[in-house]
């Protein structure tokens, strides 16, 4: 990630009350940042392609359409493989208070082929493109986010930055090897599968047992993963999507009876659900 891009993203968090440093290693761009936020802060940005390993200490919520939603509180480590052409806005919400963060961004294809990264990339390829662990010790997270002491200069600073890059890779390898990302894996993989099943046939959504079987997990793990990812139950998500489709069909001129049928509800049940959801009757929707 170019230095200017790092600085732009960091400024989105807060342009004041902060310290920001960055440097280049043979692996990629290394950066660290410290903020003191007086209020909760939310910002949107596009994440550059490549491999991102980041660490931090904050109350943070991360959300994107394809990656889902994950919340952390305290020390955490984030690993994200962002494919070429990734063009989604990622929304990040950070709670007020002292915030430490830092990371290493690998953008060069040749660098991603280095031996040191193969275990990490293999895990991301088989499990999920985003992994977040809250099991990282606070001392390690704080050390990863710390800036270089001014005592290091010239070649000594280069060696320090190189060592920091290796430490990021070592911590990422350790937590992936120890399966400390189980929740994040489930959030990304199981929840996305369930959502894809729902969106494929909103009228005939299968039972939780069938969805769990397709996702190769159990109902409890599937429902927990879905709630952690999208902030609602599977049933709440289905209802919300059906109501969105219902209002669209009604505005297009479809009858209440036909609309109910096309979203998988009986007429009396649909009328009750619609009124509860929107606060007015389906028959009063004006055709656009």
UniProtKB/TrEMBL annotation:
Keywords: DNA-binding, Transcription, Transcription regulation. It holds the Pfam family HTH_18. Residues 192-288 form the HTH araC/xylS-type domain. GO terms for molecular function: DNA-binding transcription factor activity; sequence-specific DNA binding. The keyword Hydrolase does not apply. This is HTH araC/xylS-type domain-containing protein. It comes from Paraglaciecola psychrophila 170.
């Amino acid at each position: 990630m170019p230095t200017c891009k790092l600085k732009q993203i960091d400024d989105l968090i807060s342009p004041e009350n902060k310290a920001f440093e960055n440097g280049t290693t043979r692996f990629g761009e290394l950066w660290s940042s410290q903020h003191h936020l007086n209020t909760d802060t939310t910002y949107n940005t596009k994440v550059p392609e490549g491999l991102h390993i980041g660490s931090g200490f904050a109350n943070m919520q991360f959300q994107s359409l394809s990656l889902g939603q994950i919340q952390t509180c305290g020390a955490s480590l984030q690993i994200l493989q962002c494919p070429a052409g990734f063009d989604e806005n990622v929304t990040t919400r950070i709670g007020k208070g002292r915030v430490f963060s830092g990371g290493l961004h690998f953008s060069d294809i040749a660098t991603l082929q280095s031996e040191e990264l193969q275990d990490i990339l293999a895990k991301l390829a088989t499990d999920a493109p985003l992994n977040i662990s809250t099991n990282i010790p606070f001392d390690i997270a704080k050390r990863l986010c710390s800036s270089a002491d001014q005592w290091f200069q010239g070649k000594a600073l280069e060696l320090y930055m190189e060592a920091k890059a290796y430490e990021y890779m070592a911590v990422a390898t350790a937590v992936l090897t120890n399966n400390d990302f189980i929740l994040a894996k489930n959030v990304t993989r199981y929840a996305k599968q369930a959502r894809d099943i729902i969106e494929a046939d909103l009228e005939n959504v299968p039972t939780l047992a069938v969805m769990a079987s397709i996702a190769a997990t159990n109902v409890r793990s599937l429902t927990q993963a879905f709630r952690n990812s999208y902030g609602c139950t599977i049933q709440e998500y289905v209802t919300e999507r059906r109501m969105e489709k219902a209002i669209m069909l009604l505005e297009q001129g479809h009858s209440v009876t036909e609309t109910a049928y096309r979203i998988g509800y009986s007429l009396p049940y649909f009328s009750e659900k619609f009124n509860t959801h929107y606060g007015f009757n389906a028959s009063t929707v004006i055709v656009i």
